[in-house]
């Protein structure tokens, strides 16, 4: 029973990692850029929602605040692509990585200026409620996190495989030039992807702030989520979620069954092991440069 | 024993056979051209010799070395230099630096020598610089010596690639489409240079080329390929009049 | 307009183009040598800090700027050099031996780590090194018997040629120690870059395929680059430890790794100058910010309370500005200004147009 409890809370954490990892993979698949600020997006999304809905700030009703903040974060993602990332066209992946790391610094600074550095939680309708299944006691927030993540992943998966826009994005991610010639509006697709990544990050932030507390340095969690994305293999959405869940579950179990300090070590040790033995992630294909 | 020899080389990419049981040999001192339609596997043959790909079967020997037992970088140390179809220069370095990288296989100094730039390192650098200057003279690159590759016109880059290959002081030079994208004048220059490379420098040349004018002008023997296999082999005029070659290029004459 | 006529191959091989350039560098050297006589101990300490960062920057520059392998984990090697130096000294090894040995050991560790890391490209190498840097913290805690764990260690004063040198007791002597190391490493670096090995680094950075075709062994060259990079970083780490006086598992955090990489990007990837320019920015930014905060406070009557995260925020903004508008960093800007004056009035705006960045796209089509 104890193990199961640990597993559920690990899964709930893993879902948040998975959602951030999902953002990494979305952007990587469509643009080959790696957005290291994805974790900071998550943090910012959480703070925007807190700023809208918490009684200490604006006090907007929760169910109204959520769509507003998702829209704000999506717009931010779009604008970032439009005015920053697009200028980087032709520069290397590594340059984009460094840029987004710097962006993360800036976002953390701005969030700290606006909302301070104290940890804050999101006031939400599910707070403090519990779900009892026999002896098993689950926080409603944990349950909500898992449900929302599953629905979101399923929705995105359907979107990519069923809709015209989704297929266009898949095309653009395989070969931008070919997609362009086939009439796919590559630039608009990229902007849309960044907006989508912003929205997903915001949802992750809302879930995270609902079940815990955020402060500006929470954004650094993005590094762990990035590790999760790499463990899952950088190519697929289900892979990203799987990677997130693996990291989320491995953390509490490592600290329970090995030693307290190991919950920090375990995800990165796993990451290094994956990189050494399967350099391109657990689920991925590798192509070789043609000369 | 022949200079460069491929025996029954076969390479498959997934279900596609890129090189199919191909055998041919190049003699020392000749200019040998490989022709064929796009996708015939010409560049793949080069990449097999350079050891970028492992053949599934067959053998490749050069000057008494079994190339299949060597690392890609060792192929160059045996004296094989090459150019690339899509130009692979060191873009952020100058023409001079690119050529000096070509001297790498003659490096005799070690880390300690180089960090302290001992007299032996200095002497080696002077020799390298001298050798490279002769190549620059030979290919008329003086005007571009200090220029970065990024920013040079296409035609010049093509010549710099040949120069860098020559800077390795090779025994065998592989030219992958040396005239593609060049103007008529530049192609004529390239033709004289290839002639001189063979006559003055005594370097054996193996090239892939589409320009039949250039091929028949400089080469002693020509190998025609289609679908990874050998179609015909002989003097340029023999190959050009071979019915199988004509069919491959023009399709069935009904 | 200034024109250099070349009459001798040595002119291409010497590190300086002509006497004018040599003169400039000698003047610069004289200025930094005379600095302790002019500035007070506080600014001397800051200058020492800049030099140590420049040394670390040169270490990373070898790997990232010249070999094209991005590392987000060099703080791990700073830590290794620092601990190796102090632990050796605690075992009774004199500083003059412990210091180079610490660098050497760090280099060997770098080569060992390079062997699996060599299989990784671009972003995967970056994330692997990042993970390594995060783990360093925990490894230091786990190896407490040697490292002192969370409690940390204190740096003793060191003995160089009979002088007792200590960061606080004898700041001038400590400055000269650091300056000496920096000058020696810089000269070695310059020599390396005009010799075959340095050129093979650039070859690997710009095109692995054709480097191979020129006879450059990619794996060995990258391992060599890793080793040299880590060795220099280890030396910088040892000096950083002495400079800090006390350090523990949190001193060399992953943030330091990231800062180091950002520093050389701001300075200008692919040039030794870039390491120094970047170090100046990173070293003097906190001073500059606190001065400008006081100034803003005095003029507009605002409070001068500390703003947490300000440094990193400003640093991030500077970096974004550089990546977007001057990918070649401060050194690139410097080159443009210099060329403008040297060619006056023939400078054209598009002269540097096609030189976008040193790091190539890894996009596979």
What does this structure look like?
The complex is a heterotrimer of chains A (291), B (254) and C (365). The longest helix of chain A has 30 residues, at 2-31. Chain A has one domain (2-218). Chain A contains eleven helices and two strands. The relative contact order of chain A is 0.21. In chain A, strands 1-2 form a two-stranded antiparallel sheet. In chain A, a hairpin with a 2-residue loop joins strand 1 and strand 2. Chain A is mainly α and 291 residues long. In chain A, helix 6 (164-174) packs across helix 8 (186-211). Chain B folds into two domains: 1-79 and 170-254, P-loop containing nucleotide triphosphate hydrolases (Rossmann fold); 92-168, no CATH class. The radius of gyration of chain B is 19 Å and the shape is globular. In chain B, helix 3 (95-102) packs parallel to helix 6 (154-167). Chain B has a six-stranded mixed sheet, with helices on both faces. Chain B has 254 residues and is an alpha/beta fold. Chain B has helices at 42-49, 72-77, 95-102, 111-115, 119-138, 154-167, 184-199, 212-218, 236-240, 243-250, and strands at 4-13, 16-26, 31-35, 57-62, 65-66, 80-82, 172-176, 204-208, 221-226, 229-234. Chain C is mainly α. Chain C folds into two domains: 1-31, no CATH class; 39-352, ABC transporter involved in vitamin B12 uptake, BtuC, CATH 1.10.3470. Helices cover 70% and strands 3% of the residues of chain C. Chain C has helices spanning 10-13, 19-38, 41-66, 75-90, 95-117, 122-142, 144-147, 171-193, 196-206, 208-213, 218-244, 254-267, 272-300, 310-325, 329-343, and strands at residues 153-154, 158-160, 163-165, 246-247. Chain C has a two-stranded antiparallel ribbon. In chain C, helix 3 crosses helix 9 and helix 3 packs across helix 12 (254-267). Chain C starts with 9 loop residues before the first helix and ends in a 22-residue tail after the last helix. The interface between A and B is small, with 1 and 7 residues.
